[in-house]
Amino acid sequence: METRKLGNLEVSAVGMGCMAFSHGYGEVPSEEYAIEAIRKAYEAGCTFFDTAEIYGKEQFFPGHNEILVGKAIAPFRGKVVLATKLFIQDADYENGADLFTSIKGHLEKSLKNLQTNYVDLYYLHRVHESVAIEDVARVMGQLISEGLIRGWGLSQVGKDLIARAHAMTPVTAVQNLYSMMERDCEKEVLPFLLANNIGLVPFSPIASGFLSGKITKETAFSEVDDVRKFVPQLSKENIEANQWLLNLIGEVAAKYKATNAQISLAWMLKKYPNVVPIPGSKNQERILENLGGGKVKLSDEDFKRLEEGLNAREIAGHRGIEETQHKSFGDNWSKK
């Protein structure tokens, strides 16, 4: 697979979100299956793996996903770029707590879980309203200087906040919601990132599975720990309203003998040189299919066809890219 740059980090053009092995999509597979899936992804050319300290909250425990990923990549740790995320707790800044000590404590737990002595990319999972982003950026700079992390990033943020953080400690990457159905990043965020050598790491680049064409209005999501129940575009009425997009993608996919999901990824890879999507799945077949999207090269003509189709219609359902810990999508982790 071709590689791309997130700041100074070189990664495969398509990465892998690992959350689904611990949380968020109903019943999870066995640990053995998950580890095998991650290793198969590496064998297929993936060198960028994403996790977070809170993944595992519902079915297991915070840190579960980090432990699983750490076991999986241990044989080739030095050959991959590993990303995890910090979730600031109120105790990390209240009553005179030292923010550097608190954040470093979070990182040290993640390092232990991941069986490594450094993290390549350390994100702030969501902005905490009571902690200035400049203070977090300063701490991240100290962690970089100590060699504990190679770079840092933000998630679900707009341009102004990125600019404030970047002015304190250069940002490596931003992990935002971005897909054919959620294009807010194209307005201000992507131009700023391109101008400042910052990567964009889209999560949910296949719109929680909708763009694959495998979700219909008859699809029943799990009653236990399935975030798709809360995705606006996956309501029955919006699934029906957005069928035109699946038809458009399907016509292009047929031409390339590719899947809808692969075309969805190929579209964003052609559009921006600093974009590295991290589709997530708990199914080995889907994981390998998604990685194959990095090999599909759209012609200018077909790319234009997709762009014109997207610009001509409105997407039903919208989530947006600016979220905080206390006002976020899905569960409010800060109150758990």
From TrEMBL:
EC number assigned by the record: 1.1.1.317
UniProtKB keywords: Oxidoreductase
GO molecular function: oxidoreductase activity
Domain NADP-dependent oxidoreductase: 14-308
Protein name: Perakine reductase
